[in-house]
Amino acid sequence: xxxxxxxxxxxxxxxxxxxxxxxxxxxxxLVLLAEYGRKYHVVIQPPVPVEEIIxxxxxxxxxxxxxxxxxxxxxxxxATWIRxxxxxxxxxxxxxxxxxxxxxxxxxxxxxxxxxxxxxHRYLSVEGQAAMFAGEDRPVVCRSGDKSPLxxxxxxxxxxxLMPKEMVYTRWESIYGSREPYVAAxxxxxxxxxxxxxxxxxxxxxxxxxxxxxxxxxxxAMQIRLVELGLILDRVPEPRLFS
Length: 243
Known about the structure:
Blueprint: H1 22-39, H2 50-57, E1 61-65, H3 67-71, E2 76-81, E3 86-90, H4 102-130, E4 140-143, H5 149-162, H6 165-176, E5 182-183, H7 185-195, H8 206-215, H9 219-228, E6 232-233
Parallel strand pairs: 1-3, 5-6
Antiparallel strand pairs: 2-3, 2-4
Helix pairs in contact: 1-5, 4-5, 8-9
């Protein structure tokens, strides 16, 4: 497919690819959630209202559209127009039509919020120079499978916004009685054997599948967050020297 001149294309040396620490991204997501809470209502339990955040709090125009047709790009899931303050999600994720896509839809919405919060100022500084030569508002386009630094940062932001650690800890404790981690190595090995999965594949375990609907995220996203927080261990821990 031909390169679309109306999309944002950046060189690997562009400043938007500068390293951003996970702690900085997480702090940004928590600040946004706190600002929404002060303005509207404090979010103390899941699910986090990402549609309200994007429309009511951030004041962005939000819609669902046929993005591959609109942008002439395959595999596009979301797009953000910085100057015109618009966000669109592809119709293939519309949860009113495809209820099973709710988790992926909400993650994509939170991902676009991540672009807005993390990248809009740097985008505008780069885009402002390009605007002298092109008068159009070119969107930041998010494609399935894109693992660029820009997309990684927005993915991290989405995970922190949808699954704030204190909410996850609280819900885990309400189910299991403590923050003691679940060693999932045995369950993962059994699932791999049952489904014929490769060594580098990580099937979702029951604990993640149980919590995912509470946060309205996919089981895969929930498991990634639980592993990150140390609540699920995907391999047997080494014995402590003096235990």
